[in-house]
Design brief:
about 70 residues; mainly alpha; elongated
Length: about 70
């Protein structure tokens, strides 16, 4: 059994969602200051680089082990 929804009902729901998202965005902007966001961004980038470096070392060690096996 198919359910149908009117366009007006859909638009009303979308407007409610938009209002909620706008309020959420305002709350987030007021809760964290710009320097805190920059600091957090730097921490995240540093962590990603460290993890990539660790993965690279792991790949290098596997590559070395494979080369020793066939060398």
């Amino acid at each position: 059994m198919a359910q149908t929804v009117s366009n007006d009902a859909l638009w009303e729901k979308l407007l409610e969602m938009e209002k909620g998202l706008s309020e959420l965005a305002k709350t987030q902007k007021s809760s964290t200051s710009m320097p805190e966001q920059v600091g957090l961004k730097d921490k995240i980038i540093t962590e990603i680089k460290e993890q990539a470096h660790i993965l690279g070392k792991h790949g290098d060690s596997n590559y070395g082990a494979i080369n020793l096996s066939f060398g």
